[in-house]
Amino acid sequence: MSPAPTSPTPEREFVIRRRRLRFLGLSLDDVIRMFFGSNALVAMVVLGLITVFLFKEGAGFFGDNLDNLRIYRRAGLEYVDYLRRAEAEHTALTRYLSDLRLRTLQHYMNVEKLSVAEANAKLAEFDAFADRFAEPAEPIRGFVSDLTDVVAEIKTKHAVTLDQMEEKRQLVAVGREADADAIVVEPVDFDAELAPVLGTLPAFKEANRTFMRELQIALDDQPTLPTDELNQRLEKFQRLARTFIGTLPQVERDLESWDPTQPIPMWKAFTSFLFGRQWLTASFWQDWYGVLPLLVGSLMVSAVALALAVPLGVGAAIYVNQLASPAEQRFIKPCIEFISAFPSVVLGFFGIVFLGEHLRALSQVEWLSWVPGFPIAERLNVLTAGCLLALLSVPTIFTLAEDALNNVPRAFKEASFALGATRLQTILKITVPAGLSGIISAVLLGFGRVIGETMVVLLCAGNRIAIPDFSEGLAAFTQPVHTMTGIIAQEMGEVVRGSIHYRALFMVGLVLFFLALLINYIAQHIVRRYRISIG
């Protein structure tokens, strides 16, 4: 009988594999390089596909946006918006007066202990002043209302024409020429449609001059309020109102010089997106796609998060790596790293139910009234979202910063001690500077973690698409904002594929993409310069 086959030993298997590789013309080192190189190649291919996809889906946005702006002018919406802006500014001033009346009423009731009827009686003079300021705007509102209906109808006719042209194109594409011929497309004659709108200019000029005159008369008879603080607010109203009156002649000049046939250059499509202050979609009037309020919101939330997370994360890394005992290290490191296990949606609910409510309650405490922005009006704002994002980014910053400190050669520290330096001096002047490049990388990766977060900002930032009022200083960080990631998550599921709104969301994604590239470039530049200076 033949002997039973024996399994080859590990050494024998290794020799067999080496012979097979030699047969293929490859060494073991070649295989290892190919394996890791293929991983890098896959990563580059995936990154390239994502980049191409973003550019492909967002590429047509600027052409669509240019058409959007051209129709805005040709249909006369731009003309009417000159009037609407003047009306909106007057409305904002009347709201200012309403807020001032409420403050005065609260003073009468809470400080002077008057009844509601007595307080309203004392406010009779103020109410007459407010009425004299509000009533002159009625003719202007009539102009705005009438012209809004006319130009909205012109835009609707043009939209119907575009739909008919698209329907004809689709019927021809499927071979139904007879059905396509049955659709009669009547292009809109913009000049004829706009003639009645432009013909109202003389009447508007007369109404506008009457409006200015009556506002001046109303402002000359100013009431007196019970406290210096309220009178100062009323004086501010006077300044704002007189500034507004000074802008009304410019409205007439804008209407006189307006030309519906003036071409809109291509660069307007870019600047209206990059520097536009409105993100307004599904509007009966005009859609606007301005990324600036979303970018500002993202950067503000990230600034709050990093302001909290960097001291906590880097400080904890220094303590654990340089000062803590082994028992403390075994306890602290898992606790910090465990934070990253929390789903962001859970933290978002925590922010809505607990953190936002308690921050607002804390801001009501009287001895904290000196803090900018306190008391907080809205519980969901930049501060709430920033606190939660700081919690999310601390583990990333801590782990990478601690690794950077671990990689500092032990000889540096020993040499410092040998020269008589204290532990604190060694940490601040030797260890931390030696690991600074890694710490900077940790902070920037934490920034990338923060600015790319979606669920927390969508739930806790307030989702108000407006640039905060920076004239209030640090109080701007207690106002609601919307972010780039939040707007993509909120609106992508509702848009029509291929529409201008759809492409605009991909352009927001491209802004995020280029922002990430800029962060990486800055990080590499800083690290390179630091290494040169150390060398």
Biggest β-sheet: count, sense, barrel? 2 strands, antiparallel
User: What is the overall silhouette?
Assistant: flat
What is the arithmetic mean of pLDDT? Answer: 86
Q: Helical element count?
A: 22
Output the strand order for the largest sheet.
Answer: 1-2
The parts where pLDDT drops under 50 for at least 5 residues are none
Number of strands: 2
| Strand and helix order | HHHHHHHHHHHHEEHHHHHHHHHH
Strand fraction equals under 5%
Give a verbal description of the structure.
It contains 22 helices and 2 strands. The mean pLDDT is 86. It folds into 3 domains: 8-70 and 495-535, no CATH class; 77-258, no CATH class; 302-437 and 446-482, MetI-like fold. It has 535 residues and is mostly helical.
Offer a concise description of the structure.
It is built from 22 helices and 2 strands.
Characteristics of this structure?
535 residues; MetI-like fold; mainly alpha; 3 domains; 74% helix; single chain; two-stranded antiparallel ribbon
Detail the topology: elements first, then pairings:
Elements (H helix, E strand, L loop, with lengths): L9 H14 L4 H31 L2 H14 L2 H34 L5 H7 L1 H11 L3 H36 L3 H6 L7 H9 L2 H20 L7 H30 L9 H8 L4 E2 L7 E2 L2 H32 L2 H13 L5 H20 L18 H25 L3 H9 L4 H12 L1 H16 L3 H6 L23 H8 L8 H35 L1
